[in-house]
């Protein structure tokens, strides 16, 4: 699927929204990606996860891991399509942990999957949790990359990438225009 086709789907399903948003990172942005518009539509989620599956199907993957909440749902569908096991990285005391009896054997090869990359915190925390088991991260895949950063050390893939500036409140041009601030998502 080409970038323009994906962008059309993101607009059609109201995943890509324009306004003045407070992101979970604390930054302000003119654009917001509502990942749950993808997740609520199983056919669209299946299609996007199939793109990830096809990108990594020739890698020797033992399991797929995603951080809660959205990343875990996406990781489940990628794992289902790859016919691999799933583990979930949950937030506990300001870090990510693997619990609930999930087993990760030393040197197992893991694909880390997440929904939207903004600052990379969820992915870094997930990788740190996986490394405590001696696991090998063989790749990282996200639905949407809205960051301007580069992912190093791992094979990296984003279905849709669009670098979108984020602002601290004190430097936010949208605040200076007195545009109403929306607080989407879980916070």
Describe the structure.
This protein has six helices and nine strands. The protein is of the alpha/beta class. The chain has one domain: Rossmann fold (3-Layer(aba) Sandwich). The strands form two sheets. Strands 5-4-3-6-7-8 form a six-stranded mixed beta sheet, sandwiched between helices. Strands 1-2-9 form a three-stranded antiparallel beta sheet. A hairpin with a 5-residue loop joins strand 1 (16-22) and strand 2 (28-33). Helix 3 crosses helix 4 (70-82). 33% of the residues are buried.
DSSP helical segment count: 6
Helix content: 25-40%
Beta strand %: 25-35%
**How many distinct beta strands?**
9
Number of domains: 1
Q: From the alpha-carbon coordinates, what is the Rg to the nearest angstrom?
A: 17 Å
> What name does the CATH topology carry?
Rossmann fold
**How many angstroms separate the termini?**
33 Å
**Mind summarizing the main beta sheet?**
6 strands, mixed
Instruction: Give the C-level CATH assignment.
Output: Alpha Beta
Q: Output the strand order for the largest sheet.
A: 5-4-3-6-7-8
Arithmetic mean pLDDT: 93
Helix and strand sequence: HEEHHEHEEEHEEEH
- Secondary-structure class: alpha/beta
Q: What is the global morphology? A: globular
User: Can you tell me the residue ranges where pLDDT is under 50 for at least 5 consecutive residues?
Assistant: none
Q: Architecture, according to CATH?
A: 3-Layer(aba) Sandwich
Tags for this model:
3-stranded antiparallel sheet; alpha/beta; 9 strands; 6-stranded mixed sheet; Rossmann fold; globular; single chain; 31% strand; 187 residues; 6 helices
